[in-house]
Design a protein that fits this description.
The chain is mainly α. It has one domain. It is built from 19 helices and two strands. The chain has a two-stranded antiparallel sheet with strand order 1-2. A hairpin with a 2-residue loop joins strand 1 and strand 2. It is globular and about 55 Å long. The protein starts with a helix and ends in a 9-residue tail after the last strand.
């Protein structure tokens, strides 16, 4: 990519991100965490304590079960001696990196600034972006970066690093990992499968072995989480379809294309693994996470995969499909769907939108 092309793409991404921030303005101010209770700020007190003492925090039984093993962000923040305001701004940095990475991958495959910019528009109007820019202390962007690396990184070393770091940001990384590995299989062919599995196994080993050791020592965090979710799941089950829709809205068209393209490219065994990975991963996320619209963002690599597949199969018609989907995502209303609540994401210009 030439410097001129890079500047054009950067300008396009800044534009679509700014439009999203105006159309769907952040609900909280990142640099003023003392703003009261709500889903966007509920974890601020716990995260502040975790930042101050990442190692000792996990031993306190009253702290959040969900955060117990998400130790990479607070450890990095602690080592960098970040104050809470700086720490809570890290997801904004992660969002910029993820947006640039995804658009860069699309440009690498399509050689089109237009396709890359429209992909950025779809991503900027998806739930992960709203959470990164509007909720304090949600580090989803970093496990999503790991999943994107699993599928698209040219080096297996990057894949191993993503497997080593991703679970420490969020356990959802592990739930959707098998499906993402099938995407990489569809891109690279069957010859690289055994080597890929070896790299993934080595990368995941420290996290998995430590969790097993902790369970043997009496760590009951998983059981507590399952018990907590089990009592709530029946209440928010009816909100799951709406929550999943709000995760991507028209982006689901590209996710569907991505699933179909991967299914076509894989051998029979790979197709079975893809379906099992998707059903198992999405099903587990639906049961284990009551922030429904936020959690389904784990399928983001399928959207990027779908854009690339659409360009290869139908470059002219695909451009129109992508443009219409991106435009409608800026027009349609957006919501956070959490438990039994549907929380509108409102613009700072309510009269205009």
């Amino acid at each position: 990519m030439t410097s001129s092309t890079s500047l054009k793409l950067l300008g396009a991404l800044v534009l679509v991100a700014a439009l999203s921030l105006v159309r769907y303005a952040p609900a909280v101010t990142v640099f003023n965490p003392d703003i009261g209770f709500g889903y966007g700020v509920a974890r601020v007190p716990e995260l502040t304590r975790q930042l101050a003492d990442p190692a000792g925090w996990a031993s306190r039984p009253k702290e959040s079960v969900a955060l117990r093993w998400r130790l990479l962000p607070p450890t990095v923040g602690h080592l960098l001696r970040l104050k809470p305001a700086g720490y809570f701004a890290l997801p904004l940095l992660g969002a910029a990196i993820l947006l640039a990475l995804a658009a860069g991958i699309v440009h690498r495959e399509t050689r089109s600034v237009g396709w890359s910019a429209l992909t950025g528009a779809l991503l900027c109007t998806a739930s992960w972006f709203f959470v990164a820019t509007g909720w304090l202390g949600q580090f989803d962007v970093f496990y999503l970066l790991g999943l994107v690396a699993i599928v698209f990184a040219p080096s297996l070393l990057a894949v191993g690093a993503a497997c080593a770091l991703g679970p420490w940001c969020d356990e959802r990384f592990l739930l959707i990992l098998p499906a993402c590995l099938c995407l990489r299989w569809a891109r690279s062919g069957p010859g690289a499968w055994r080597r890929l599995l070896a790299v993934v196994a080595v990368g995941l080993a420290p996290y998995v072995l430590l969790r097993l050791w902790a369970a043997a020592q009496g760590d009951a965090s998983m059981g507590r989480q399952l018990a907590l979710q089990g009592t709530e799941f029946r209440d928010y089950l009816r909100n799951v379809p709406d929550g999943w829709w709000m995760g991507f809205r028209l982006g689901w068209v590209l996710i569907g294309v991505g699933v179909a393209a991967a299914f076509t490219a894989l051998p029979r065994a790979g197709r079975v693994l893809l379906i099992l990975g998707l059903v198992g991963g999405v099903g587990a996320i639906g049961v284990l996470a009551w922030d429904v619209s936020r959690s389904i963002a784990a399928l983001l690599p399928f959207l990027v995969f779908g854009v690339i597949a659409l360009h290869r199969r139908w470059p002219r018609a695909g451009w129109r499909i992508l443009a219409v989907a991106a435009a409608l995502n800026f027009i349609l209303p957006a919501k956070h769907v959490v438990e039994t609540h549907r929380i509108p994401i409102r613009s700072i210009w309510p009269r205009a939108f």
